[in-house]
């Protein structure tokens, strides 16, 4: 019965670990998406900055295309870009926190990632003592 409890615990540890890695991947994806939006804002700003401020300009607000002037649109695009950059900074902070939590979790449960036939840890399989705490092996996410 103790062996079954150990398997359940290892499965739970593996599930929590996979969940943590999934969260980190989602944050990476969102940061990448927002960085692409910042680049798009930079392209728009680069295209309209040299134009006459009174020139007609169109902007999407929700799903509606509205007519404005360059003088009205340029500051709004700059504010949007700055807001996105702030969100990226907060996501980077959250990412670092999650990565630290993941590292602590790996150390707590002695988790090693098994990639193919090699393990990422610096220990050699032949150098381990039999019966020593082995930790939990988790496949690649």
Automatic annotation (TrEMBL):
Q: Which GO terms describe its biological process?
A: protein folding; response to cold
Q: Which stretches does the entry tag as region Disordered?
A: 117-141
Name the Pfam families on file.
Prefoldin_2 (PF01920)
Name of the featured protein: Prefoldin subunit 2
The entry sums up its family as follows: Belongs to the prefoldin subunit beta family.
**Entries under InterPro entries matching the protein:** PFD2 (IPR027235), PFD_beta-like (IPR002777), Prefoldin (IPR009053)
Q: Which residues form a coiled coil?
A: 81-108
Give the Basic and acidic residues compositional bias ranges: 117-131
The Gene Ontology CC terms held by the record are: prefoldin complex
Keywords in alphabetical order? Chaperone, Coiled coil
Which GO molecular function annotations are given, in alphabetical order?
unfolded protein binding
């Amino acid at each position: 019965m103790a062996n079954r409890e150990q398997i359940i615990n290892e499965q739970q540890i593996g599930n929590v670990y996979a969940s943590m890695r999934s969260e980190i991947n989602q944050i990476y994806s969102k940061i990448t998406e927002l960085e692409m939006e910042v680049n798009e804002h930079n392209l728009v700003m680069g295209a309209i900055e040299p134009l006459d401020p009174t020139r007609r300009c169109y902007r999407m607000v929700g799903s509606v295309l509205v007519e404005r002037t360059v003088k009205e649109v340029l500051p709004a695009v700059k504010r949007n870009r700055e807001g996105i950059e702030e969100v990226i900074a907060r996501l980077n902070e959250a990412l670092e926190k999650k990565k630290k939590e993941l590292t602590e979790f790996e150390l707590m449960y002695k988790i090693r990632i098994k990639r193919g036939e090699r393990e990422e840890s610096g220990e050699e399989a032949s150098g381990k003592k039999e019966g020593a705490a082995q930790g939990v092996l988790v496949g690649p996410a």
